[in-house]
Amino acid sequence: MIEEDVILETRNITKKFPGVIAVNGVNFKVYKGKVNALVGENGAGKSTLMKILAGVYTDFEGNLMLNGKEVRFKNTRDAQEKGIAMIYQELNLLPNLSVMENIFIGREFLDKFQMVDYKKMYEESVKILQKLDLDINPKRIVSELSVGQQQMVEVAKALSLNARVIIMDEPTSAISEHEIETLFKVINSLKKQGVAIVYISHKLDEVFEISDMITVMRDGKVVGSGPKEDFDYNKIVRMMVGRNIKDFFVKSQAEISEEFFKVENICLKSKDDPNKYIVNNVSFTLRKGEILGIFGLMGAGRSELLEAIFGVHPKLSSGRVFLEGKELEINSPEDAIKAGIGFVPEDRKQAGLILSMAVSQNITLTNLKNVEKLIFISEKKENDLVEYYINRLNIKTPSPQQIVENLSGGNQQKVVIAKWLAVKPKVLFMDEPTRGIDVNAKSEIYKLISELAKNGLGIIMVSSELPEILAMSDRIIVLSEGRKTGEFKVSEANEEILLKAAIPRSMKIRETNNTIKTS
Ligand SMILES: Nc1ncnc2c1ncn2[C@@H]1O[C@H](COP(=O)(O)OP(=O)(O)OP(=O)(O)O)[C@@H](O)[C@H]1O
Ligand SMILES: [Mg+2]
């Protein structure tokens, strides 16, 4: 690497928080026109280091060099003006504003009367969204978008800033295969224009595909750095966790006994269009000890199916739910929880956690206040419970009293899982349970899921990661455009079979046309 190509550099940077040295004497170089990948376990300090580069944290030890000169950003705005944009791991959009307002927030176009020029804003947004091959109306309110779409809006916003350095903190954790492909195309074209990308991901395959340079962090320090060719998968894992991981997917076969949970004809109508069904007549059964995988492409209605069963949309959903032979009357999540259903949701920020509360409170209190038998839990028991889950899931926190907001993204996800396990459900829904979780913790979570099944829990797991769903499930159902399009025993399934069932009919037709055209 030629030193002239270094656009941004940290020299011996340290950032401390009470009880934690998040970043410890880090030297990190960002090269122009390259994808600079940053990997490391949950809590290793990746996001914190990036927030220093992007002007979020201005108070740190050490030096930050931009084009060979020392800089101190006053704030994120200042960093943006100097060419550095960041897509945050915990998305940063304003949910009640439209897509276009979010893209251009703080730098709205003005017309000659100094009024916000919405027409221009709309047109510019359309252009950027087109570049990303995204079919989103710029006027839509962000809160109505899926997590994946929101993530792409963040990408659009960074693009619109014409940045020279774009930091992407886990940009693909919630987007579909197709969107990942598009994102990689965009990244490659940005590279050609000399833009430096800093790319954080726990998906190591992806890192090998897209990156040029790799840096590995562990416990706040850089433990390895160099061109991609210097690394391989096992080497990175060893550097990250200090050992090899032998059995990544841990699945010990649980004894699958009687059918005890059943849903019939679950439907969910669209909020915008009462004639449209997001979930259309889905039925399935679940046995004790069984792990049922739900696969589908983004927008297939996977999360919505679970939400409909769980009573999240009582006015729009219909269908029947049976547990242990009794029909349940579920009109709210509270009803579902009382009946013995737990739900680890996809978006931990929205539905999973109270960020301003302590780790311990999040694990024990929030959902339990309505569950009678747990009201009288003693403080001692509560502490034991919290300790148990912190150890079991290896939640990295200075103490159980730490505010959840201060944990790293992956550790927040572990708190969500702990919280739902503490409810001791009979049936557990898990929507993308390992999103944002490092390789080591992922393996731990698989082990835990497998054990839960062994203890007789029924588990329904939504995942867009094919290897994960194939390794962990006993049976898999596939959704496409809200309908069940396939059901397979895991022994009958493979990636190709699942994808075939998942591709919407409209896309299949397009594909055939393409083949005709190209051949
Ligand atoms: N605002 C904060 N206050 C206190 N501690 C913090 C704060 N932000 C981060 N930390 C701590 O600093 C450490 C590094 O966190 P960071 O978010 O940088 O990790 P990460 O490598 O991005 O992890 P992940 O892969 O889970 O996102 C963690 O121990 C975290 O709990
Ligand atoms: Mg992070």
List keywords for this structure.
519 residues; alpha/beta; Rossmann fold; 3 domains; 6-stranded mixed sheet; disordered C terminus; binds adenosine-5'-triphosphate; binds magnesium ion
Could you please describe the fold and organization of this structure?
The chain is an alpha/beta fold and 519 residues long. It folds into 3 domains: 3-241, Rossmann fold (3-Layer(aba) Sandwich); 257-340 and 425-519, 3-Layer(aba) Sandwich (Rossmann fold), CATH 3.40.50.300; 350-424, no CATH class. The chain has helices at residues 46-53, 76-81, 99-103, 118-131, 147-160, 177-192, 204-210, 233-241, 302-310, 333-339, 348-352, 359-364, 379-392, 409-422, 439-454, 466-472, 495-502, 505-518, and strands at 6-17, 20-31, 35-40, 61-66, 69-71, 84-87, 165-169, 196-200, 213-218, 221-227, 259-269, 277-287, 291-295, 317-323, 326-328, 341-344, 427-431, 458-462, 475-480, 483-489. Strand 9 and strand 10 form a beta hairpin. The model is unreliable at 367-375 and 510-519 (pLDDT under 50). The structure holds adenosine-5'-triphosphate and magnesium ion. Magnesium ion (MG) binds next to helix 1.
